Amino acid sequence: MITSLHESLIKKEFSCVELAKKYLESIKKSELNAYITVTEDIAIESAKRTDYKIKNSCDIGMVEGIPMSLKDVISTKGIRTTCGSKMLANYEPIYDASCWEFLKELGVILLGKTNQDEFAMGSSNETSFFGPVKNPYNLAKVPGGSSGGSAASVAGNLAVFSIGSDTGGSVRQPSSFCGVVGLKPTYGAISRYGLIPLACSLDQIGIISQNAEDASIIFDIISRHDRKDATSSDLPRAKTFESLKKDVKGIRIGVPKNCFEGCDEEIKSAISKAIEVYESLGAKFDYFEFQELDLTMPVYYIICCAEASSNLGRFDGIRYGFRAEKFESVNDFIAKTRSEGFGDEVKRRILLGTYVLSSSYRDSFYNKAQEIRRIIKNSFNKKFEKYDLILTPTTPTTAFDFDYAHEDPVKMYLADVCTVPANIAGIPAISIPCGFSSNNLPIGMQLMAPHWHEDLLLNMTYKYETAS
Amino acid sequence: MVTKEQILSLAKLAKLSFDKKDLPRLIHELESMIKFTDKVSEVKVDFVPASCEETHIDTRKDEIGKSSKREEILKNAKNKNGFFFINTTLY
Fold first, then answer.
1. ipTM for the assembly
2. Is some CB atom of chain B closer than 8 A to the CB atom of A272?
3. B81 in contact with chain A, both atoms CB, cutoff 8 A
4. In angstroms, rounded to a whole number, what is the distance separating the alpha carbons of residues A402 and A389?
5. Residues of A in contact with B43 (CB under 8 A)
6. What pLDDT, on a 0 to 100 scale, did the predictor assign at position A116?
7. How many CA atoms lie within 13 A of A65 on its CB side?
8. Shortest Cα distance from B9 to chain A (angstroms)?
9. Is A94 helix (H, G, I), strand (E, B) or coil?
10. Phi, psi of A417, rounded to the nearest 5 degrees
11. A233 interfaces chain B, CB cutoff of 8 Å
């Protein structure tokens, strides 16, 4: 999509302002609630600059003038960045996140900041202070989360692509629910500078797009070493765009059978058909048991909540953000600010994080979870000696109804059972649309690869898109 | 089994406050989350080095660099007079 829009802009089939206005009009008319802030003036100004360059026969880059959206957890200088929370409802960062800076300097058009679960905690986009996002395929269903607004913006043609964040599946799960491509790269591939953190050892910036080619173009731009993020790797990156069309004959793919237990029958059937497509391209499949699967969710929630309880300690209302009006002391001020500013899910996770880090339980929960994390990571390393890729469903169900897990938050956590392992191991993974259920809801499959093999993930996605 | 006292102690550590009427719900939710995560305590592990990402950390030199302006830093603060402060209100 990006390459065809780029060619149309160069051929002057339409102007960049016309393109931006088309998307802005669609956003205004949309019922999806995908955006928290629409940056119309900024978008039109950027588009005018691109049109000026085209008019004067200056070269423009591949992504210049392409309209996109950013999840509202990514800092944008002078543009409200809320994290979907009352706590930051009027917060304007004083610096740009690196991933946004890299795109901005190439002239992309920012349409706005997308809705999300509060502080990226959720799998349905229902915990946003700004109201839930609706699924473009069925307005009565959730779009997934936490990057639900980003996925809905791409699926609903309200942006060409979107940048989200993925801590336990927050790019891949909504991409699956909304029928778009969602890439979570290797930990350290994309700078997290300016990403308001949920859990620093798990968070990674991700890309949501209509297809593999667009994801590849954007990944090659934003995946680079950044000294502002100490965990940004300085290893050289493979250019994924050059590998998109490579032959996939002989690729060995492992399928963990137990990832399909409890899965909708229609999802199993769609993935069986996808496996047939890959087999016709020459890929070889083998089946195994992922023995640590049952442990991944508890390990994830212990580490995630522990890191979140520490990260969210910064929100005290003193320097920025929401502040309580009535209080009796400084401690009372901070407690009231946090209690009134955070939503229920955020407070639940802070409490669990505080519990697992408290002196009585640290060894049996947090330290143990870190040890098991190493075991899971070693298990993946061993599997990748035998297989080039691992294939699973992205989610055990298609998009569910609103209020699905009202009574039991744990029920919601299980929506991420297949996506969480990649975050625990720090490996790259992608969600690929692979069909529809009988009630016309998108189905996604997930491919996981060893560290730094985004090129293979995007190559396999491209091949599936062109062969199916 | 989570007690009311434990919830209040955790809330104090986490700098949160809750209405008394919310405590039964919070106890129920936290118990459910602890039960969900408790599987890890059943796992027997011999010594395993705790995990951290194997990314090479490229630390920067400890030198004075560009800093943000005071007005910018204070931009989002509600109460300011060249510095951050809280108006103490006594009832």
1. 0.88
2. no
3. no
4. 34
5. 295, 368, 372
6. 98
7. 29
8. 10
9. coil
10. -60, -35
11. yes
Q: Which range (A112-126, A184-198, A394-408, B42-56) has the least confidence?
A: B42-56
Half-sphere exposure of residue B45: CA atoms within 13 angstroms, side-chain side: 23
Task: Report, in angstroms and rounded to the nearest whole number, the Rg of chain B calculated over CA atoms.
Answer: 23
Is residue B64 classed exposed, middle or buried when 0-12, 13-18 and 19+ CB atoms within 10 A define those classes?
exposed
Query: Alpha-carbon distance A280 to A277, whole Å?
Result: 5
- Return the HEC string of A100-153: HHHHHCCCCEEEEEECCCHHHCCCCCCCCCCCCCCECCECCECCCCCCHHHHHH
Residue A189 Rama label (left phi>0; alpha psi -120 to 50; beta) = alpha
Query: What amino acid occupies position B79?
Result: N
pLDDT at residue number A122: 93
Which domains does chain A possess?
2-243 (3.90.1300.10)
Of A334, A144, A74, A279, residue with least CA distance to B86: A334
Residues of A belonging to the active site: 71, 146, 170
Sheet with A252-256, side-by-side order of all strands: A35-38, A109-114, A67-71, A161-166, A204-209, A181-184, A429-436, A442-448, A389-393, A252-256, A284-288
CA distance B76 to chain A (A): 5
pLDDT greater than 70 at residue B91 = no
- Any bridge partners for residue A255, and if so which? A287
Taking each helix axis from N to C terminus, what angle separates A293-311 and A368-386, rounded to the nearest 10 degrees?
130
Confidence of residue B85 (pLDDT cuts 50, 70, 90): confident
Q: Is the Cβ of A38 closer than 8 Å to some Cβ of chain B?
A: no
Query: pLDDT, tens digit, for every residue of A385-441?
Result: 999 999 999 999 999 999 887 767 777 888 899 999 999 999 999 999 999 999 999
Compute the nearest-CA separation of B29 from chain A (Å): 7
* A353 vs B11: CA distance, rounded Å: 11
